[in-house]
Amino acid sequence: MRKFSLLLIASGVFSLSSFAQDGESYSDKYTTWSAGVDVGLNHFYGDLYGFYPESNIDGRNLGFGASLYATKWFSHLIGVSGNLGINQFQGKRVDAYFTAFDMNAGVDLQVNVSSLINKGSYKESKWSWIPYGGVGLSSSMPRIYDANDNIIVDRTERHNEIIVRGGLLVKYKLNSSWDLDMRYLGTMMVLSDWSDNVESGTAFDGTNHIRIGVTYNFGASDDKPSIVYARPINDLAVTVQELDDKVTAMTTDSDGDGVADAMDKDNETPEGYVVDGSGVAMDVDRDGVADDIDQDPFTPRGAQVDATGREMDDDGDGVPNSRDQEPNSKEGAMVNFQGREIKSGMGGDMANAFLPDVFFGFNSARVTSANEQRLLTIAKIMMANEDVKFEVIGHADPVGSEKYNLNLSERRAQAAVDVLVNTYGISADRFTVTGKGEGAQVGNNNSINRRVEFRLMD
């Protein structure tokens, strides 16, 4: 975490160019010019100074001052400010005091340290902390008075000084155009300690200022704020976080389906489901039921299915609704592949009766619940037509040896007969079990080749 923070600070310092991170110039993205005014109290310290503890003179501790500022920012971090000011200074010692009216001008280099602070947000801050330092010129006419307000020391010409200055400016964003300023300023006379008309040689004269003011940001708006509230480190931190999130998403698979979250369109796929490249559970027949729970994964396109993927068969004749031309066949009626009832007994059209196949899983002879519905159709036919007998023919796909597949196909046929005998009470004498092994393939779809067929016996 510490290395990450240092990286952000280093990146912010490195960005002392005239361009923002996204290539826009600062003048395009932010306002960089402003003007302000402040007022406040002044405290003088020198041979005479405010709050002299042993003075017999009341008051004369603080003066009043006001300044005008014009500021140009070259980046979110560095700006230059020019200023003009007028100040009243006062100070005292045991039995005397002085006053001076001072005019000054200066230029300061400003460093917006708050622009290097990361708060993890895109939004500009409403606060800005700006240390500054510079040089200036001061011109004053100090006079010293005794306790009775008589002039003791007067001057016939102004006292001019070079000063060094520095302090801290705290800004608060009132709205898009206006700022509230709170400023501390300290100055020191460079050439002499004559500013109070007394030169002791022991120390340079200096001043302290506490000010409050306002600043107007030229051209500022909600879409183009003042640059002093810009937080490029925040943007960089968010960018780094977004990249980290993307990397995490590319390496994280929340639902364990083998597709990374970043590309997974369904992050809640049940465990064990087979999915496509987008992380969506496979649905070969596109009936809306995932293959892993689809008990009939080869329903025709657009067919109406139940929650288990089985095609609806309202009259239970074994012919699904999508192909049933007589959707109201009576229970146990023998029908053809179109769902039409066969009425000519055991001859003639009986050979065209529709008899559903039963399908099995790979290397399995277990009858699933989906196939129990198909066997129910066979059972109804046999219970309604007591003379009907069936040859039950088992098949297998070509995977494995011929001998093994022959045995598997026989077991599948026998499993279907066992359900009809044990569940529906059909006599075993009405069935003949045959195994074809892999000798009667239907195309290349092994799911269909793993089946049991029913054929009418004469």
Automatic annotation (TrEMBL):
GO molecular function: calcium ion binding; porin activity
Source organism of this protein record: Phaeocystidibacter luteus
Chain ranges passing through the membrane: none
Gene Ontology CC terms, in alphabetical order: cell outer membrane; pore complex
Keywords: Cell outer membrane, Ion transport, Membrane, Porin, Signal, Transmembrane, Transmembrane beta strand, Transport
Signal peptide positions on this chain: 1-20
UniProt subcellular location: Cell outer membrane
Location of the OmpA-like domain: 347-458
UniProt-annotated stretches for the region Disordered: 250-333
Cited InterPro entries: Bact_OuterMem_StrucFunc, OMP/PagP_B-barrel, OMP_bac, OmpA-like, OmpA-like_sf, TSP_type-3_rpt
Protein name: OmpA family protein
GO biological process: monoatomic ion transport
Taxonomic classification: Bacteria, Pseudomonadati, Bacteroidota, Flavobacteriia, Flavobacteriales
Main subcellular localisation: membrane
Topology relative to the membrane: Multi-pass membrane protein
The organism's place on the tree of life at top rank: Bacteria
Name of one Pfam family that matches: OmpA
